[in-house]
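Blinded run. Sample ID left blank on purpose so nobody reads anything into the name before looking at the predicted structure. Input follows.
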Amino acid sequence: MNYDWLYLYCFIFACGLTSALALTPVFQLLAVKFDFMDRPRGEAHKAHGKATPLLGGAAVFTSIALCLGFGFLMIYLRKFPHITGLLTEHAAGALHIAPRMWILLFCAFLAMLLGLVDDRYALKAHTKFLGQFMIAVIAVFCGKVQLSLFCPIPAIGIAATIFWYMLMMNAINFFDNMDGLAIGTITIAMVLFAVVAILNGQVFVALLAALTAGSCAGFWFYNHHPATIFMGDSGSHLLGFMAATMSLLLSCFRLDQSLSRFPILIPLFILAVPIFDTLMVVLIRTRNRKPFWIGDHNHISHRFVKMGLSRKRAVDLVHLIALAIGLGAFPVLWGSFQTAAIVVSQAFLLLAIVSIMQFSLAEK
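Blinded prediction complete.
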């Protein structure tokens, strides 16, 4: 194993962590100055009792953008500190993918901006869906990100990719219902994405995942219970976009490069909990004849609180479930059909247990 590369990934993670730790207090002050605050007004899905800054998503995006911009600047200038000297041999590849990377970063900015506008003006559901659709279209046609599904018909892959982007942006938006819940889950997911990318030999995907994980971890320091700043819809849209992009950039969807016989399962394992939570909440709200886009207390975290756990312990338990299922991606990545079948069965059984709790305790 080349430990120099491991040091580089850790260094990139540390850069994201440090920048987010430094930037988040700045955006807290900006939120107070410009009155970008979340003031609870008796909404059923909100439990905090005081006004809280809402610019966490902007802090995370700025951390990612600044670190990414600095990294590419070093490559453009051909000036490499000792730890980034490893990238010298990949400089040509980095310059080749740079335009595509900036397009995806621009899409991430648009996702953050859409959520920011929603935080300020409470957009209608159809307006948000339209914005998400447009962002996904730009990512697909300009960013050249597309899910093939091993199907020769391009239109099916394009439709599936757009749906995946919209699903993840809404899933993380729904999932952000307790202090530290969504940001912690995405931090875990990004670390797992980074490891899978390393195993696939995708240097820049691994670096981007490590940077995103570090930026999320830095913000998590301020967002854990009791949170001093929320990431708001700007953060949930941003992280949903990044999670979708990371899963699509992994070469595990290409049979000629994938280490796995079941590559499509890899991101589903890593993002299983927020996807599962979204599907369950939609089913419960539909069964109760309520609009699925209106927030309530039917999420997995709320179920654990109703069982007697504190909000902090409920969040910790969800994170452990996300990590336990996410780690199942590696037996699928390396193992035989029999191994994959067992791991998939275990994940379904664990989620079935949570489903029983959800539906048995669902609000009437």
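Unblinding after everyone has recorded impressions. The mean pLDDT is 86.
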